[in-house]
Design a protein that fits this description.
The protein is of the alpha+beta class. The chain folds into 3 domains: 86 residues, no CATH class; 153 residues, FAD/NAD(P)-binding domain (3-Layer(bba) Sandwich); 172 residues, Flavocytochrome C3, Chain A, domain 1 (Alpha-Beta Complex), CATH 3.90.700.10. Helices cover 30% and strands 18% of the residues. Strands 8, 9, 10, 11, 12 and 13 form a 6-stranded antiparallel beta sheet that branches. A 3-stranded antiparallel beta sheet has the order 3-4-5, with helices on one face. The radius of gyration is 24 Å and the shape is globular. The protein starts with 26 loop residues before the first strand and ends with a helix. The model has no long low-confidence stretch (mean pLDDT 92).
Length: 456
């Protein structure tokens, strides 16, 4: 279904304010029957008591306004009643959105065609008949199983977001001793790349930005921490981002990828790659900050566990966060001079339709800009993460895996984040990972289907 999403750079040549991004329609996973329990749940940190939000400003706005508007209160109450009923009957929410809806609907199509989906079955080896790849050896239920294919094997292992060795060689913030925290599934460890390389395939790693960057924070949990992607808070008026030296470094309302790229480069001469999102009491009450929800939801838990840092003054906040206090006070003072008038002379927040799209349209004159001035003040520490890798296996247009000399590895294909992205390390708009993935997956599938027809 269409969305109102602008391009991430709508003012660039060819950019548009509305119209290029589409979204999977919500999907009721009860249609999966017994397979419903096999669907990976959504990322815990971006749900509310396990409930997914529709990827639209309208849906979220009701939750932000539930205590201020009767219409929003009734909307939220209805959503909660339905969700609690689903939890009681099925142990999880059954109305899924966005990527979960896409995965569920595609799985339903496969099951309807009696196509088995085998999970928890790592591929140990690609098999060859001497001329082409014709199968795989997997480990499933503690047994080695051989699966043969007449038309070849397609690698779709999700890229290498958790391949520690490869990342340490590619990510600049890791090479200089920093950390990287990815919210993508922990099983995306680069298996597809290693399998391709094992038979002569080549992995291209020459994009300036190796991955789709996503600023994230670490939410303390009983058994470690959850990863929270900062998809919404950075756009809101009254929230700014600073480095350890207390200085702003970018337009916080730019896309997550752009902010991430700017963060990596801004921290080249610092001892860690991180920023702190900072706001005052009025702002956190209205919008929340990171994983901390807006008022009236309590936030004491997050202050106690260290996720949310508090200070009665900016200097005290800086001391508690480990930020340069003198410079932070100067930075906020300079920012506030323009912010009280809705202006950001230094980084021009609110200049583009994309800046404004996820901000607060009811805040005038600039939906992205408000001063930071009423204590106590709050901060959340933000690290570098990613939504998937752009670098990947070199392929032909139809997905055939290629060697370093551009020779085809017969019978072997790569799709998804395993394949080097056509975007070249850039992120021009919402869905720029899934869009090419689906497009070239379709092209690869049709190529293989034609081969099958020819061989019959």
């Amino acid at each position: 279904m269409p969305t109102l999403y602008p391009d991430y750079h709508p003012d660039a040549p060819g950019g548009v304010d509305i119209g290029r991004s589409v979204l999977a329609a919500p999907f009721d996973i009860r249609a999966l029957g017994d397979n419903m329990k096999r669907l990976r749940p959504p990322l815990k940190t971006i749900t509310f008591i396990g409930m997914m939000f529709n990827s639209s400003n309208a849906d979220l706005k009701h939750f932000f306004n539930a205590t201020k508007s009767f219409t929003s209160f009734m909307y939220v109450a209805k959503r909660l009643v339905i969700h609690f009923k689903e939890l009681a009957l099925y142990g999880r929410g059954t109305n899924v959105t966005s990527g979960n809806a896409l995965a569920a609907s595609l799985a339903k199509s496969a099951f309807d065609l009696d196509i088995p989906i085998i999970t928890n079955a790592p591929v140990k080896e690609l098999l060859s008949d001497g001329q082409a790849i014709n199968g795989v050896k997997i480990r499933h239920n503690n047994k080695d199983i051989t699966l043969k294919s007449k038309q070849g094997v397609v690698l779709a292992c999700g890229g290498f977001s958790h391949d520690v060795k490869r990342l340490s060689q590619l990510y600049p913030h890791l090479k200089r001793g920093g950390v990287h925290i990815s919210p993508v599934p922990k099983t995306n460890t680069g298996d597809g790349c290693r399998l391709a390389e094992s038979v002569g395939g080549h992995v291209d790693t020459n994009y300036e930005d190796t991955s789709a960057w996503m600023p994230v924070s670490k939410v303390p949990e009983k058994d470690g921490y959850g990863v929270f992607p900062h998809l919404l808070d950075r756009y809101k008026p009254g929230i700014i981002g600073v480095l350890k030296n207390g200085k702003r470094f970018t337009n916080e309302s730019n896309s997550y990828h752009d902010v991430g790229a700017d963060l990596i480069r801004a921290c080249e001469n610092l001892d860690e790659t991180a920023m702190w999102l900072i706001c005052d009491t009025e702002t956190i009450n209205k919008y929340g900050l990171g994983y901390v929800k807006p008022a009236p939801m309590p936030r004491g838990k997050f202050i106690n566990n260290g996720y949310l840092i508090q200070g009665n003054t900016l200097a005290e906040l800086a001391k508690n966060a480990g930020i340069d206090a003198e410079q932070l006070v100067k930075t906020v003072g300079k920012y506030n001079e323009g912010a009280v008038h809705g202006e950001d002379p230094e980084y021009q927040r609110g200049r583009t339709s994309f800046n404004r799209y996820l901000a607060d349209p009811e805040h005038k004159p600039n939906p992205c800009v408000a001063p930071v001035q009423k204590g106590p003040f709050f901060a959340v520490k933000v690290y570098m993460g990613d939504l998937g890798t752009f670098d990947g296996i070199r392929t032909s247009t139809v997905g055939e895996v290629l060697s370093e000399n551009n020779e085809k590895i017969q019978g072997l294909y790569a799709v998804g984040n395993d394949r080097a992205s056509i975007m070249g390390g850039n992120y021009p708009g919402a869905g720029i990972t899934l869009g090419p993935i689906m497009t070239f997956g379709y092209i690869t599938a049709h190529h293989i289907a034609k081969l099958k027809q020819t061989s019959q």
